[in-house]
């Protein structure tokens, strides 16, 4: 079997007395969409922040694309990207200016004209072309989410980390974004890890689901495996069972 694209072992993050992430381990194979699920405060954002190198783990290891992220993240960051509703792009810059600045930061090929071409292409693809001249701070929450995703796809990443990629989107736009992500994964073979509170989204997109509670991974599997293990018809019900600590037989500790 080929090397997993994301491999995390015994990963822990403490903030003082709080253990936000508690010794988790998981592996995401190439071309898989993996979903991190869990209630508020379960540790999803902290996990993604450590994968990106925005937070230093207290202990444990993270490998992305075969590189140790704690030692050599500069080698893989050009092949990664992320979007999060919690990270704002500069408000006063227009959408075009923001995307252009990021295009240059990512060192996109083709110099000035290459960046201009890619910005136009991605703006078209994510249907943000009509906002290009607007200051980013004046966009609606849903429009900002789309621009953040456009920014995340500028460098055609092989590894995409998404924190609630469809937060604040109306159902139609959210559906459209999911289709876009599915197509992107299929066409590029990219590996995607996303945190989501939207069970339908996870059921539709994810080949691997990691259920977090209190900083730990308390269960995992394909959506179909989880439905079967809990004897449920929807992931929403599985989520509630896990959140409320109701197990329906099956594996007691699937964390390793
Ligand atoms: N910078 C920080 N300082 C102290 N505690 C933190 C910090 N960041 C997160 N925490 C705590 O770590 C725990 C996990 O938070 P995290 O943001 O990772 O959860 P989450 O699963 O992403 O939640 P949500 O679904 O609400 O976004 C929470 O108890 C949170 O209060």
TrEMBL record:
- Matches recorded under InterPro entries: AAA+_ATPase, ABC_transporter-like_ATP-bd, ABC_transporter-like_CS, ABC_transporter_ATP-binding, P-loop_NTPase
Kindly give the PROSITE patterns that the UniProt entry links to this protein.
ABC_TRANSPORTER_1, ABC_TRANSPORTER_2
For whether the record's keyword set contains Nucleotide-binding, the answer is yes
In Pfam terms, one family for this protein is: ABC_tran
Sorted alphabetically, the keyword list is: ATP-binding, Nodulation, Nucleotide-binding, Transport
* GO MF term set: ATP binding
Q: Which residues form a coiled coil?
A: none
Q: What is this protein called?
A: ABC transporter ATP-binding protein
Question: Which protein family is it in?
Answer: Belongs to the ABC transporter superfamily.
Cited Gene3D superfamilies: P-loop containing nucleotide triphosphate hydrolases
Please report the stretch or stretches of sequence annotated as the ABC transporter domain: 6-239
